[in-house]
Design brief:
The protein is of the alpha/beta class. The chain contains eleven helices and eight strands. Helix 1 runs parallel beside helix 3 and helix 8 packs parallel to helix 9. The mean pLDDT is 98. The structure holds erythose-4-phosphate.
């Protein structure tokens, strides 16, 4: 399973990239706004911190506008993936950009039929938003399972990018459901390593080593 980090905070990205566990980055207009930095500048910097895909989202809502913004974003760096919303215009733009060899991440996916359309439009990634479905009492994980089954039935190559991940449990369930990628905020990724028994066990081992004077 690939791990993308969902942030536009370059310090966090650099810190996590140093672990060798990060395969790409996703951003959205809200995350870019939070960074307080110019869009193209921050995307260019992020692209230099990872060799993996960096999702940069358009803000146009018509197909032509999305295509022109997508081409512009793709010129920032070779590893930009253009993020487009799951609308008819987004799907039209997806087909055009995909035919030009530009990888597209179709975002704001909340149903299996939407995911089917994105795959047919040539998306490199489909981003089902788990947390936002859970927020309205719909099981986000069920959506990942449905999309996995549909994509496997027809051998679509579009990668399922589990997004809007809010907890370690979301990561585990996405992996069990066969998501190809998950994107999560830095804090969620960092929390994956924690287990109280690991901390406790290490404390005991170190105390015993100290008592016995063990040196390596
Ligand atoms: C993914 O690409 C989105 O940027 C992100 O996962 C949205 O997460 P949220 O619903 O927690 O804002």
């Amino acid at each position: 399973m690939k791990f993308f980090v969902d942030t536009a905070d370059t310090k966090d990205i650099a810190d996590l990239a140093a672990t060798g566990l990060i395969d790409g980055v996703t951003t959205n207009p809200s995350l870019i706004a939070k960074s307080g930095r110019p869009f193209a500048e921050v995307i260019a910097e992020i692209c230099g911190l990872t060799d993996g895909p960096v999702s940069a989202e358009v803000v146009a809502i018509d197909a032509e506008g999305m295509i022109s913004e997508g081409r512009k974003l793709a010129k920032i760096a070779e590893n930009v993936a253009v993020k487009l919303p799951l609308t008819w215009d987004g799907l039209k733009a997806c087909r055009t950009l995909a035919d030009e060899g530009i990888p597209v991440n179709v975002t704001l996916c909340f149903s299996a039929n939407q995911a089917l359309l994105a795959a047919k439009a040539g998306a490199a990634f489909i981003s089902p938003f788990i947390g936002r479905l859970d927020d309205i009492h719909i099981d986000g994980m069920e959506l990942i399972q449905e999309i996995r089954q549909i994509y496997d039935n027809y051998m679509f190559e579009t990668e399922i990018l589990a997004a809007s991940i809010r907890s370690p449990n979301h990561v585990k369930l996405s992996a069990l459901a066969g998501a190809d990628v998950m994107t999560a905020p830095p804090a969620v990724i960092r929390s994956l390593v924690s287990h109280p028994l690991t901390d406790k066990g290490l404390e005991i081992f170190l105390a015993d080593a100290k008592k016995a004077g063990i040196k390596v």
